[in-house]
Amino acid sequence: PAPPLPGGRTAFPSRLLHALVHAGHVTEDLAAEVTQLQEREGLGVLAALAWVGVPEDAVARVLADLWHLPFVDLAAEAPEPGGLALVPHRIARTHRVIPLRMEGNGILVATSDPDILAMDEIRSVAGRPVRIAIATRSQIERLLEVAYVSGAAR
Q1: Sign of CA dihedral 127, 128, 130, 136
Q2: Region 116-138: what's the mean pLDDT?
Q3: Could you give phi then psi for residue 109, rounded to 5 degrees?
Q4: Which residues, 6+ apart, have CB-to-CB distance to 90 below 8 Å?
Q5: In the 3-class helix/strand/coil scheme, how is 56-106 assigned residue by residue?
Q6: Based on the number of CB atoms within 10 Å of its own CB, is 152 exposed (0-12), middle (13-18) or buried (19 or more)?
Q7: What's the pLDDT tens digit per position in 53-107?
Q8: Cα–Cα dist 35/33, whole Å
Q9: Contact 73/139 with Cβ under 8 angstroms?
Q10: In the structure, what pLDDT confidence band is assigned to residue 150 with cuts at 50, 70 and 90?
Q11: Contact 81, 107 (CB under 8 A)
Q12: Nearest 5°: phi and psi at 104?
């Protein structure tokens, strides 16, 4: 898989664009427009795809397939208190992640843009190995507003 860069930019956005074209979510012309937008505006591929209106659910599912990671629909799967308790809200908000649950001796974390540096920090604060699942950014941001204030974690 393409390694992430600091700031959430995927190192090889053309792989994601190619996969989106192959899956029928983006035309070749739109992929070229996204690439030009990235260069002109300095956007990451995910931001550029959102800018041109590619559905984030489609992007998230293709990204999960590309990285061989599970996709999770956060509307159907709520975070468990045990996972939330291991990652402070400030860190979850900074990295736009939702700690979903404990899995064995590790923690499953949902993100829309895998970033190795963010996962290293989460592993460090949680004191456990991190397993990544892909979710949409809008679902993550909605949950960040409610999951920690619901009393499940502080």
Answers
A1: negative
A2: 95
A3: -120, 130
A4: none
A5: HHHHHHHHHHHHCCCECCCCCCCCCHHHHHHCCHHHHHHHCEEEEEEECCE
A6: middle
A7: 999 999 999 999 999 999 999 999 989 999 999 999 999 999 999 999 999 999 9
A8: 5
A9: yes
A10: low
A11: no
A12: 60, -125
Sheet strand arrangement including 130-134: 97-103, 106-111, 130-134
What is the CA angle 122-133-41, rounded to 5?
80
d(CA 141, CA 145): 7
Q: pLDDT band at 1, cuts 50/70/90?
A: very low
Going from the C-alpha of 26 to that of each of 54, 62, 109, 146, 152, the distances in angstroms are 7, 11, 28, 33, 39
**β-pair type (130-134, 106-111):** parallel
101: CB partners within 8 A, 6+ apart? 79, 80, 82, 83, 107, 108
144: Cβ contacts below 8 Å, ≥ 6 apart: 89, 92, 93, 96, 98
Reported as half-sphere exposure (CB side, CA atoms, 13 A), residue 49 has a value of 31
